[in-house]
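## retry 2 of 3
previous attempt timed out at serialization; input unchanged, resubmitting
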Amino acid sequence: MLCMMRAMLRHSRIVIFDEATAAVDHETDKRLHHVIRTAFAASTVLTITHRLDAVLDSDRILLFDGDRTIAFAPPQKLVQRGEGLVFTISSKKADTCWFFGTA
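## retry succeeded, writing output
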C-alpha cells in the first residue's frame, strides 16, 4: 500500500502491480482495484494477478504460457471468440494461475 500511495503522489506514468491484492479477500480486492482504476486513470497500469476478475475490465490482456505470448486483446474479444485460457477461466470462474497484464 505504501508503494501505491507513493506512485499516486508522484503521478507515475507507468505503474506495475505484481499480485498486489493476493493476500486480501475478494471484496477488498474489488475496492482496491476501483481505487487503482480511478487514481491511475491517466497512467499505464500493468497488473500481474491470478484473479481473473481483477483484469476483466482492463483495456487489454496479455496472456503468457511460459515465455510465449498466447494472446493480446481486449478481454471481451478473447471471451467472445471462445479462444484460449481467458475463455476457459472465465467460464469456470476459477482462480487459476496465469499472468494477466493490463495497459
